[in-house]
Amino acid sequence: MQSGLTVRIGELWYNFFAMNVKKFVKPNIYSLTAYQAKEISCRVKLDANESPYGFADGYTVLKSVKTNRYPDPEATMLKRLLAKEWGIRPANILQGNGSDELIYYLITAFGGPVLYPVPTFSMYGIIAQALGEKGIGIPLGTDFDLDGSRMAGAIRREKPKIIFLSSPNNPTGNCFSSEKMLQIIASTSSKSLVVVDEAYHPFASEKGFLPMLGDYRNLVIMRTLSKIGLAGLRVGFLIASGEIIEEVNKVRLPFNLNALSQAVAAEVMQHKAELRQHIRAIVREREKVFAELSNVEGVAPYPSEANFILFRVEDVDRVYQGLLGEGVLVRHMKGVVEGCLRVTIGTPEENRIFLRALKKVVRSEKEDK
Amino acid sequence: MQSGLTVRIGELWYNFFAMNVKKFVKPNIYSLTAYQAKEISCRVKLDANESPYGFADGYTVLKSVKTNRYPDPEATMLKRLLAKEWGIRPANILQGNGSDELIYYLITAFGGPVLYPVPTFSMYGIIAQALGEKGIGIPLGTDFDLDGSRMAGAIRREKPKIIFLSSPNNPTGNCFSSEKMLQIIASTSSKSLVVVDEAYHPFASEKGFLPMLGDYRNLVIMRTLSKIGLAGLRVGFLIASGEIIEEVNKVRLPFNLNALSQAVAAEVMQHKAELRQHIRAIVREREKVFAELSNVEGVAPYPSEANFILFRVEDVDRVYQGLLGEGVLVRHMKGVVEGCLRVTIGTPEENRIFLRALKKVVRSEKEDK
Question: Model pTM?
């Protein structure tokens, strides 16, 4: 066939040129580093912006799932429930195996460049690179809000196909100014999709962008069940005009949302009182933790509308390790927001353990000086 | 910002150029049609190559899954079990949200052109187009086996980065000649990845390509749990050299396999006796259904090593509709293998219903003539 060096010896064919995978893979992939989601054992896990509350009872519904059958490719029941909750039509919703997959699909369908403020959720940039598209991070301005003129300049210069705005923003915790966001959406109306990632919206006081959906045809909203108690299920949603959903749906794998996750999500969505109670508990705790952090000398928390708090400490490596020594895992923001840690709001008990450990660690730091 | 036509009226910003999504989306996506996995109601569902046997007891394990936590990004337990089963290392396995996702990742990581014999599993071509890569289908030869010289010519001409060989092949049911496959793998050793999709391997008498993994560095194998009773879970695997796995892993979403599917799959993998019993029952029934089909006048089944049988009938539309009228759903192969239907092997009872219905439909057809 292709090469004269392919020879048959006994029952097998041989070729003496072996593949050099490093040269064979696409260059944008070769230079990419795999996302590190390594497990660190701990007593109190406050590093991943998960909810501390699960829904053990939701499992009873699984007895009716036929695992030997393919899942509903349209996630009909789940989309119907959410459409009702959000006051939109199921045709405006696309289900994803987490928001991550929907970011993949958006960039696959529309291409790049992909622009986003930084620091923000890391997957926008990682997925852009995986798909061979340019990712452009524009530094945030004062108080971690959007830098309007810098964003405008970058948009003019780079002509992004997609702009991601995570609001509340991970890892800073704040919502961006609605007016600045709307100005970006309006100014790019025919040139860029603006994807407002509302993963943390349930914890925010802002009303979010769903009400704007009819006003801006380039507006796309992302929501997820990961932050409200169902991270293990991997269920995210894209919300946009039927026209946009239709195009993104073309690159969606037909059975991207497994049957178990569909069933549990649909079941839990019907227990709204419990969901809201969990969310209220987290918001209440966030305010308490923020107040307490503000009172610790050498610790400066940033205001948050999400289920986590970013805070600055004096010797970040030492505080991180000190907390871990006390069994408390938080997220080290090295390379993202220098000198900062990010703590997820846990149960009242977990938060108490975290605060006690932090005070101990910071105090011992002072004493050493 | 970008355009002088963006104006603020009251609280909102407006721009008078709305997005034309059809022009905004990538051209390869605009011309793509979404995969149609529409639901057709029926009494006996034999259209999707699912197993008729589920694992209701597997659910008890779910009580220990914490849905509020992110899943294990490495699917450690599941990969360990399969590595043991297959006699390889976990580092040679990559988990996917179904094989579909792994096809997506392979093409994302290595690019195209993507070459495959036709007819075959449709997703190779669909995903290639979704990712903007060229898909090349090369007609199969006699008895639906690979056409060696035609494949060799196409490989020389098109220089594919990836070659997909589904064996047993869907929808034809046969295994390709091992020697022809090995020759393709050896002749492309440094130029193409050859992905042997063994989705239907559990039902085949051939030993498969796992034993060859050490011999060919461009060999990639795909396996799935979808055909052996777990289609609802969406769990597929890529098996290859550590070097290839490492590159594909870079484009994998960190939490692509949800926690529920991981738990149920790991649990079921430990009930090997039950799994094997189901597989044996399906193979036994396949032989019976094949023999019976061969005896129906005007029906010509093709030999199968999978959990389905492709068969030719005289008036395919009428037989398809007639079966549906009897409550039996099979797959119409229109546009794939003209004049043929594909029936999944069900339980003995389901197969009896199918055969009885088919005989009735074919007989009434004869009588009408």
Answer: 0.92
Give the residue numbers spanning the domain of B297. 44-49+273-368
Chain B residues 132-171 with CB within 8 Å of chain A: 152, 155-156, 161
- Collapsing DSSP to helix, strand or coil, B348 comes out as helix
Residues A324 and A213 in one domain: no
- Does A189 contact B15 at a Cβ distance shorter than 8 Å? yes
> What is the distance in angstroms between the Cα of B274 and the nearest Cα belonging to chain A?
14
* A231 neighbourhood in chain B, CB within 8 Å: 67-71, 255
List, as ranges, residues 217-246 from A with C-beta within 8 Å of B.
217-218, 226, 229-234, 241, 243-244, 246
Whether B67 and A256 lie within 8 Å, measured CB to CB = no
Cis omega (within 30 of 0) for bond into B90: no
pLDDT tens across A214-245, in order?
Answer: 999 899 999 999 999 999 999 999 999 999 99
Judge if B323 and B342 occupy the same domain.
yes
CB pairs under 8 A between A and B: 327
Q: Are both A233 and A209 inside the same structural domain?
A: yes
Residue A233 lies in a domain: yes
Report chain B residues whose CB lies below 8 A from the CB of A24: 110, 161, 190, 193
Same domain, B124 and B138: yes
Q: How far is CA B6 from CA A150, A152, A182, A195, in A?
A: 17, 12, 11, 19
Write the pLDDT tens digit of every residue in B280-327: 999 999 999 999 999 999 999 999 999 999 999 999 999 999 999 999
Work out the widest C-alpha separation in chain B, in whole angstroms.
78
- Torsion angles phi and psi, residue B209, rounded to 5: -100, 0
Residues 6+ away with beta carbon under 8 Å from B84: none
